[in-house]
């Protein structure tokens, strides 16, 4: 089979795979032309996010396999849509496929990737609407661009820039240690973001991809530079962070603050999140601190002592920046 | 300067660079949040295309430099928008930057890339609205996703699927030999596509990225499998194809038919393209053949003899497939 033949086969396979997921409205033309053509439903804006994953940095192809890479690549992008409270709409996947690898040739890798991408697309009623397939002698690179939809009317999209002093900060789940395996299976908080937006006044929303401390710095920077004060005892620590701490010599709290790829959401709300209010929300939410009117990042201990929170290290696997 | 610091600097530079080009309407939120937010102007559909370029396959970083890579990466994507007769709107750029290279470190490469991307964005009144910046030990990879706009009403977008027997095929410029350097400076035929759409009834439109013979096969496949007959003497051969033929031992015609990355447009029209009609079009157009009602690809010689056109080789640099 010639290379050209193989590539045409791949396109056909992608086209066939893309169809079953075509349950979102407005996909006028998907895969197969020079570009896709989309018509946003009336009253909606388009949300666009893109994330690139590379072998050895965000995954290890030989260890994790191609399907896991497809699942992760979609998941990290979906997490960015969740951070805007958007609904997934259409996916575009560009790949640089190694001609040979421990897990097979370019076609085998493409097949596995496609399985992973398709599975996540179906879970989120997305359409795989286009892409670009390349083979080379380098490592696997997967670049996903997702389009989402969000209502034009309030509450609309939620930005990271609206946090104000007095806001309570809260997260959707326990943090840290995702490198032990969880980072491969992101659970993008799409439904949670939609539910929270409907039931809670949100000033700001961000997904935790680079670690709570780093991502809160971005939220602060986008929100007029207001400071952040976290309650040390309130930060939910994932079991993985506990396990990892036993190996790393770092504290579980350090892992929860500084590990990346949790893919939980962090929000700022002007509402008071007392136990009653929390119990009546449709989504699990853990208050962790507040926005304060002095600049800086602070950690408040159970005894009331407040100390500055130093910037932590990046996750050793992850070293990228979304913009 | 720590790595994290360098990356934040890069984001700021991208944000600053993105602003001057912000002349298209509907960019509600660009770089700086988890995702961009776009509002298509009333009466418009969204066109989406994505293309990934890799060092050693689509460019040679050490030879061409980072700015040229940025220009080419934008150009090949713009060519796909032209092929839909769409107007450029917003760009998203994801990059895997080598930490070290002959042309400098990751920051230097990012700076050069950004110069190239910005230059093309300004030429086409586009907004750089988002992206993802990563550093690694592998070669440079650049993945661009472009969003374009096209009117909802006819004539709207032009697909590659509408060619019918009797249609005349025509191209916007001479073909072949782009590897001698032209492939680095694509002149995406955005304005030409818009002008042709306004002045000519178009059944199909495609951009020539993989070579006339390959791309016409795609047009045929998308257009009910109708055959293609090209007039050998009418195919415009670029000077570069003539020059390259002297080195390659292949014929200039072979180069014009089978070299990739011309980034001219090829259209199918039911109109008769006689010299008068051509002279009155606002855009240079060269008739090269016709769509026929028998399957296959044929080359007609000046003496009237018709022979099958065998699939040619792919450009030795390019080996990718858009979908």
From TrEMBL, chains A, B:
Pathway assigned to this chain's UniProt record: Cofactor biosynthesis; thiamine diphosphate biosynthesis; thiamine diphosphate from thiamine phosphate: step 1/1
Binding site for Mg(2+) 1: 50-51, 132
Keywords in alphabetical order: ATP-binding, Kinase, Magnesium, Metal-binding, Nucleotide-binding, Thiamine biosynthesis, Transferase
Residues holding Mg(2+) 4: 34, 49, 80
Record: residues binding Mg(2+) 3: 34, 80, 207
Binding annotation for ATP: 131-132, 160, 209
Entry EC no(s): 2.7.4.16
Family: Belongs to the thiamine-monophosphate kinase family.
Protein name: Thiamine-monophosphate kinase
């Amino acid at each position: 089979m010639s290379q050209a033949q193989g590539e045409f086969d791949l396109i056909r396979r992608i086209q066939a795979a893309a169809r079953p997921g075509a349950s979102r409205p407005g996909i006028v033309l998907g895969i197969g032309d020079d570009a896709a053509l989309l018509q946003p439903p009336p009253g909606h804006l388009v949300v666009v996010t893109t994330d690139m994953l590379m072998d050895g940095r965000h995954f290890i192809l030989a260890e994790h396999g191609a399907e896991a890479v497809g699942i992760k690549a979609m998941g990290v992008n979906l997490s960015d849509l969740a951070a805007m409270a958007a609904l997934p709409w259409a996916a575009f996947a560009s790949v640089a496929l190694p001609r040979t690898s421990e897990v097979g040739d370019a076609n085998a890798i493409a097949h596995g990737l496609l399985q992973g991408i398709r599975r996540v697309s179906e879970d989120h009623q997305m359409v795989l609407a286009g892409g670009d397939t390349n083979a080379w002698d380098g490592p696997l690179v997967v670049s996903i661009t997702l389009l989402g939809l969000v209502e034009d009317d309030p509450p609309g999209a939620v930005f990271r820039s609206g946090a104000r002093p007095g806001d309570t900060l809260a997260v959707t789940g326990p943090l840290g240690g995702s490198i032990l395996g969880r980072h491969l299976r992101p659970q993008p908080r799409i439904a949670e973001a939609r539910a929270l937006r409907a039931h809670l006044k949100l000033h700001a929303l961000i997904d935790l991809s680079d670690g709570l401390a780093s991502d809160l710095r971005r939220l602060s920077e986008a929100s007029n530079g207001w400071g952040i004060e976290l309650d040390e005892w309130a930060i939910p620590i994932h079991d993985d962070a506990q396990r990892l701490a036993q190996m790393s010599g770092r504290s579980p709290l350090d892992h929860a603050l500084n590990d990346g790829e949790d893919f939980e959401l962090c929000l700022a709300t002007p509402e008071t999140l007392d136990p009653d209010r929390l119990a009546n929300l449709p989504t699990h939410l853990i208050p962790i601190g507040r926005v304060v009117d002095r600049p800086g990042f602070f950690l408040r201990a159970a005894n009331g002592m407040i100390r500055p929170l130093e910037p932590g290290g990046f996750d050793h696997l992850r070293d990228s920046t979304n913009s």
